[in-house]
């Protein structure tokens, strides 16, 4: 079975509004391009207790989860430590991560025309970025070589930790998808078929929506009302989504029933993913 995919966004800067989250739409895009979909997203501030609880739930599940942010080595970065607490394992310097971080430090020294000093306090501190929960696997970082990491939970769920910077996080998430999740790509093609309905009330359409879901249990019906759309004004976008093989029959029932009640139709939209 295809697992549920989840996303965790860590950082006070998102919840305070200092920065706008860009990860959610991008992860949806990356998953959709591979015939997958996002099941949920959690936003968590820099609170170790909340981060640990959120990760503990992820590890106890069977989900594939991406966690963005908080894996640096400053006092407000808690994600690495919280992951270890959630798994009840110690932290340790990952040897491959250490090698990559040292390589990055040598690159920076060379770029700046300086000698590489491995024992300099700031360089020693940078190795903390490679301190991961015991048993973690690294995620390559093509931007600056400082890796992320992946951990497996007792429930079978996996959490893949990447930085908060999109320029690093997004190619790292793509790498995980292509290396670890390709067996699920495009296994269950999905279709979404909807239509704009003018002048209708959701309450009046609810019995019809319930009937479609009863008669076609593989399909979900959705209703997206709008009161001030710049083109369509007040309207409802009503549609069905689910396996591509099941949507046509459900759509036929919905469409014919809407005609039967004299619905005022606008444009239709069909999305395949």
Terminal Cα span: 18 Å
Structural class: alpha/beta
Number of strands: 12
Mean pLDDT score = 96
Percent of residues in beta strands?
A: 25-35%
Shape: elongated
Query: Strand arrangement, largest sheet?
Result: 2-1-3-8-7-6
The biggest beta sheet is recorded as: 6 strands, mixed
What is the gyration radius calculated from CA atoms? 23 Å
Give helix and strand order, one letter per element, not per position: EHHEHEHEHHEEEEHEHEEHE
Stretches with pLDDT under 50, minimum 5 residues: none
**Helix amount, in percent?**
25-40%
Task: Give the helix tally.
Answer: 9
Keywords:
273 residues; alpha/beta; six-stranded mixed β-sheet; 9 helices; 37% helix; elongated
Describe this structure in words.
The chain is of the alpha/beta class. Helices cover 37% and strands 28% of the residues. The protein has nine helices and twelve strands. The protein has helices spanning 12-15, 23-32, 48-60, 79-87, 95-111, 121-126, 166-180, 202-215, 247-260, and strands at 5-10, 38-44, 64-68, 91-93, 131-133, 137-139, 148-152, 158-162, 190-198, 220-229, 233-243, 264-272. A hairpin with a 3-residue loop joins strand 10 and strand 11 (233-243). The two termini are 18 Å apart. The mean pLDDT is 96.
Structure at a glance:
This protein is of the alpha/beta class.
């Amino acid at each position: 079975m295809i697992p549920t995919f989840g996303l965790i966004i860590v950082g006070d800067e998102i919840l305070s509004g200092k920065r706008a989250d860009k990860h959610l739409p991008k992860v949806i895009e990356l998953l959709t391009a591979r015939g997958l979909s996002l099941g949920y997203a959690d936003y968590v501030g820099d609170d170790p207790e909340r981060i640990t609880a959120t990760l503990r739930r992820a590890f106890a599940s069977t989900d594939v989860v991406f966690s963005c942010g908080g894996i640096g080595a400053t006092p407000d970065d808690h994600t690495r430590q919280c992951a270890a607490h959630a798994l009840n394992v110690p932290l340790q310097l990952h040897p491959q991560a250490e090698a990559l971080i040292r390589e990055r430090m040598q690159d920076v020294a060379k770029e700046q025309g300086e000698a590489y000093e491995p024992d300099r306090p700031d360089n020693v501190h940078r190795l903390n970025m490679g301190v991961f929960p015991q048993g973690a696997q690294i995620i390559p970082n093509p931007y600056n070589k400082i890796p992320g990491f992946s951990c497996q939970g007792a429930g079978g769920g996996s959490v893949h930790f990447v930085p908060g910077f999109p320029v690093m996080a997004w190619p790292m998430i793509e790498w995980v998808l292509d290396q670890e999740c390709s067996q699920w790509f495009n296994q269950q093609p999905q279709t979404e078929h909807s239509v704009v309905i003018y002048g209708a009330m959701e309450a009046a359409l609810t019995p019809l929506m319930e009937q479609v879901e009863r008669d076609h249990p593989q399909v979900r019906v959705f209703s997206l009302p709008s009161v001030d759309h710049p083109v369509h004004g007040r309207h409802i976008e009503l549609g069905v989504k689910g396996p591509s093989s099941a949507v046509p029959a459900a759509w036929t029932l919905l469409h014919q029933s809407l005609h039967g009640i004299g619905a005022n139709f606008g444009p239709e939209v069909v999305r395949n993913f």
